[in-house]
Structures are given as structure tokens and as C-alpha cells.
Amino acid sequence: MSFPKNFLWGGATSSCQLEGGWNEGGRGMATTDMVAFEEPDKRGLKGIELSWEQLQYRKTHEDEFYFPKRYGIDFYHHYKDDIKLFAEMGFKVFRMSISWPRIYPTGIEEKPNEEGLQFYDDVFDELHKYGIEPLVTLLHYDIPLYLSEEYNGFESRKTVDCFVKYAKTVLERYQNKVKYWLTFNEINITLGSPYCGCGAFMSRSLKDEKNFKYQLSHNQFVASALVVQTAHEINPEMKIGCMICRLEKYPNTPDPKDVYQSMFESHLNYFYIDMQVLGEYPYYMKRIFQENKIHIDMEPGDLEVLKKGVVDFISISYYETYVCKYNPTLDLIDAGSLIAPIKNPYLQNTDWGWPIDPLGLRTTLNNLYDRYHKPIFIAENGIGCKDILEENGSIHDPYRVDFYRAHIEQLHEAIKDGVDVFGYAMWGPIDIVSNSTSEMSKRYGFIYVDRDDHGKGTNQRLKKDSFYWYKKVIASNGEDLS
Ligand code: BG6
Predict the structure, then answer these.
(1) How far apart are CA 281 and CA 316, in angstroms?
(2) What is the CB < 6 Å shell around ligand 1?
(3) pLDDT at residue 1, rounded to an integer
């Protein structure tokens, strides 16, 4: 059994890591504009998690910092050339996000910024010129900074309203250019990184940590459900998906206690899909909320909104799997976080310590399909590597090809198992700024960008060996992985 005939091969990006043009075209400031490059000892998910005090300091001491996500790789000015390269690889789909503050600079304006809207019109037209389907994420971390500072981001329903207004604007505008949409990128990042996912600061909340984070999630679920309903009303042809950082959880041993722990931690990950696919709080969360004294503030009608706004498909990012060891005192937030603390002795790690697990992809796709019976789109899968640019401009990256070959083989197996996967967008087809570390030197792309961690370089685009390999994979619809 082969890959489906119209399988969507391609790559995925986000505006805050790719686009640049932060102070052009009427764009407002984004939360991600305040995330600075930091030296290795300060890195990790913490790097994207600003405190209120850090934010205020950075605003008044801008010169002391370099903010890579303001510049990305300057797709804003290079999109025609970049899309041409994607087309040369044979892309069928390009996943990108719209920068919310490019459309509504502070979030609260009554009218959208026409120049921002026109930019995305141009990008979508350019993609269609080559027969590439845009798949668009409405929010991939770049929240208008104003909403973060004034309303504590998604802690407030005011931000939910502004998000729905923004979504309605772009859904209406691009309904004939974009068929596939995602509401929030990795909606479950909120537990570990509320500033990144929601533009919210715990220190500005009256709630304790658990109440704060699960309230943020609730507000995002409601926002997502409202947007799904809006999209279907605007044009029933549009397909809206959720997007989760999927972590398949393995028990550390066959000890039933470890097996139980992996089930418990799996629930915390599935929770984010259950809410958007099944449209209600799942049974297992009731006890968890009760025992952790979590009370969600709801507005009248929220439960109906959740029920009505279920998504059309599931999308995931898949980078790694996770080992679970019985620990009855493990904090709820840690249990649901995206950072795997226990090393899996059967797996190799990337240079950034992420376990490489191709077979886990087949397992997770089967588990998802088994649970939901919904079409699945792989919205991200990839490996960050240190590449060497040779004197003659070539980049030899067999390690990247090995990674993708192994994962695509397992994806193929899952399809042969009968799982309905309709597309695969590897992460970062062109080198972009890393989300967690804000580095350029953590490279994912098939296309090299001559730019370093401090923003120095020519910005020239160069094809890596893997570029030609992926081109062959797409041309053969996944048959030729040699
Ligand atoms: C996902 C995010 O978590 O992982 C992307 O959706 C991110 O934005 C990707 O870039 C890879 O992570 P990183 O930190 O290596 O860029």
C-alpha cells in the first residue's frame, strides 16, 4: 500500500521564527519580539518564558539584547525566492502562521491593518502559483504584546474576544485561498510556558499555578471552539484542526505502577485533544481537578461552545517520546509538561538531547487513530542539527536524511496499518530561528540560511544535500527513500 495519491508533502514554519519585518507594514509588537538570544547556560524552555520584570527591563534596555524573532530569516522580503525553492522540492503543502499583530497591531483595533492582510494575500498567491496548498496556523506564539501587558494574555476573556475577531477577519478574507487551518500551535505548551503559549504571567494572576494554567487552557479551548464554528459558518469547505505537541508515554518497566503512571501522564497529553475533538471535559479530569483543588471559571454557554466547536482533523508535532516512572508525588504541572526528564536507554538523542524515536511515530499515529478515528496531519517532525558550510557552498547532512528516512518509513507503516494520515509537514524546511533557544545554529532545514545566532551573515539561501533527497521522496510519493 502506497502513500495516498494526493498526500500533502511539505514543510512547516511559524511567523515569529521565519518572517521578520517586525517594524514594517504597520505590524505591532508581538510577545515573541521580546524573547532574546541567550547564551547556552541560560537556555531551555525557560528562555521563552519571560517574567513580568524581565519584560519591563527589556523594554527599557533594548540595546543590551538581540531579539532574533523580530528578524526571523526575513521571509517578509524573501518569500518569493523561498517559495520558489519549496516548489523546486515539489512541495504540495506549506504550513505557515499569520502574525496576529500584523493584522491587529495591538489586538484591540476595530479595523484590521490592510497592509498586513495584503502581505498574506501575496504569499498565498505565490504559493498557489506553484500549486502549493497553504496550511495556516492562526496563532503560533506571537501574541500582540499589548494584550499580554494589558490583559495578561489569554487569562482574560477580552483576549479571547480579540482572537476570535482576528480569526474571523482572516478566515473571511482568505476563505478562497486557504482550505486548511489550525487554531493554536501546540496548545499544550501552556502548562510549561504560559508566556509563550498565552502571553500570560503567573505573577500577574490572582490564581495559584495550577488554577492559572488550566484556566488559560480553558480560555484557549473556548477560543478555538468559537473559531471552528465561525470558520464553518463562513465557508463549510474550510477544514479546521487542533495542534498538539504529542508525547507518546512509555512505562519505564512492566511494573504495573509504571504502566499506570504512563497512562496517567498520557491522559494529561490526550486531554488537549479530547477537549477539541470530543468537545467536553473528559471523565478523568474531574478527579484530577478535584484532588488538585482546580476550579475553572466558566462563562454561561462555554460548555455548549466546546461541544459545537469540535475540529475536523487532528494535527500533531512529533519530535520525541517520553518515559514514565511511578511517582505518586509528581506535581501535576510537571507530569503534563513537554520536557522528558527520564532518559530512554534504547534511544539516541539529538545534539540538543531530544530522544530520536521513529517507531514511536507509528505507535502514536495508531494510538491517535484508535482513539479518535479522525484524519491526522503531521504538522511538525524534525531534527535540529549543527551543519557545516563547506568552502564551495555545499552542506553535507546525511544525519538529517537518516532522521527523515527512518520517520517516513514508520509513517508509511502507519498508513499501511490503516491510519488516515493526509499530510506530512517536516519542521523548518528552511533554517529558521529556534523556538526554545532562539538560535540559528540549531538548524532543521533542507535549505541553509547564512545567518548566525547574533543575526550576522548574508542571509543567502543554499541547498543542502537533503534538499535533493526530499525532492526525490516527494517526486516518488514516498516510494524512493534511498
Ligand atoms: C515545536 C514548535 O515545539 O518545536 C516550533 O511548534 C519549534 O515552533 C519546534 O520551532 C522545534 O523546537 P526548537 O526549539 O528546536 O525550535
Answers:
(1) 20
(2) 14, 17, 185-186, 245, 317, 380, 384, 427, 434-437, 442
(3) 75
> CB–CB of 435/48 below 8 Å?
yes
Low-confidence ranges of the chain (pLDDT < 50): none
Q: How many helices (H) and strands (E) does the chain have?
A: 16, 12
Helix spans in 130-255 (H)? 145-151, 157-174, 194-198, 209-234
Q: What is the CA angle 16-21-23, rounded to 5?
A: 105
For cell 478515528, the residue is 373
- How far CA 234 is from CA of 140, 168, 222, in Å, comes to 22, 8, 18
CB neighbours of residue 239 within 10 Å: 19
CA–CA gap between residue 224 and residue 120 (Å, rounded):
21
Q: What would the grid cell of residue 178 be?
A: 486557504
Contacts of 65 (CB under 8 A, 6+ apart): 36, 37, 58
| Cβ burial, residue 397 (10 Å; 0-12/13-18/19+) | buried
Distance from the alpha carbon of residue 300 to the mean position of ligand 1, in angstroms:
36
Residues whose CB is less than 8 angstroms from the CB of residue 331 and which lie 6 or more positions away in sequence, other chains included: none
Query: Which residues lie across from 134 on neighbouring strands?
Result: 94
Ligand 1: centre distance to CA 437 (Å): 9
Tell me, what's the pLDDT at 46? 64
Separation of first and last alpha carbons in the chain = 18
Distances in Å between the Cα of 374 and the Cα atoms of 238, 252, 397 are 16, 29, 35
Helix (H, G, I), strand (E, B) or coil at 427: strand
Instruction: Supply the Cα-derived Rg of the chain in whole angstroms.
Output: 21
Q: Which residue numbers are catalytic?
A: 186, 380
Query: What pLDDT does residue 330 have?
Result: 92
Residue whose Cα lies nearest atom 14 of ligand 1: it is 436
Q: How far is CA 358 from the centre of its chain?
A: 19
HSE-CB for 233 with a 13 A CA cutoff: 10
Distance of alpha carbon 345 from alpha carbon 308, whole angstroms? 44
Contact 174, 136 (CB under 8 A): yes
Q: Report yes or no: 399 and 348 within 8 Å, Cβ to Cβ.
A: no
Burial tier of 22 (Cβ tally within 10 Å: 0-12, 13-18, 19+): buried
Q: Give the DSSP H/E element, type plus range, for residue 135.
A: strand 133-139
**How much distance in Å is there from the Cα of 433 to the middle of ligand 1?**
9
- 73 touches 433 (CB < 8 A): yes
Q: Which triple of cell numbers denotes residue 230?
A: 465561525
What single DSSP character describes residue 37? P
